């Protein structure tokens, strides 16, 4: 392994650039993120590199420290300041840009974090009546049906702290999702394609 010093990155102290075999990770993703006071899971969109957070009324957004997991070896910055999960606080009253630097220090991406004040755990669908998700609560299978059975969609399933559990892409109606292997709790189903997006809270009992 050969190491050498690089120039400063995003205004922080120098980081060593490392040539190694196997090569270092080049991914720049936010794998999971949660915020104190959130009332439901943050929704992570890896394609558009956005995160939507849902906070309870009255939560002060000016000094929140996000808990996050990044791609292996990656580092997060906000306005040039390195971020430490659960320790570095930021003002989330408006959209915040997280710059994620890859482990190999050559790749970076910008993620937009947006916060919505919620009245509770209830999720309002952006397109009412498009999907029917049942039974809910469930202890086994969740059925997803849509009037337009010919239109494919992507399904992302998250737990309440925003961790993606699994995804199913380019699937068609009707769909059966087995949840019996997951613990009792609240899960978020994100159903989308280029023409629509819906969020559903599903309770596993």
TrEMBL record:
Pfam families for this protein: Por_Secre_tail
Domain Secretion system C-terminal sorting: 133-204
InterPro entries: Secre_tail
Protein name, UniProt field: Secretion system C-terminal sorting domain-containing protein
Coiled coil stretches, renumbered: none
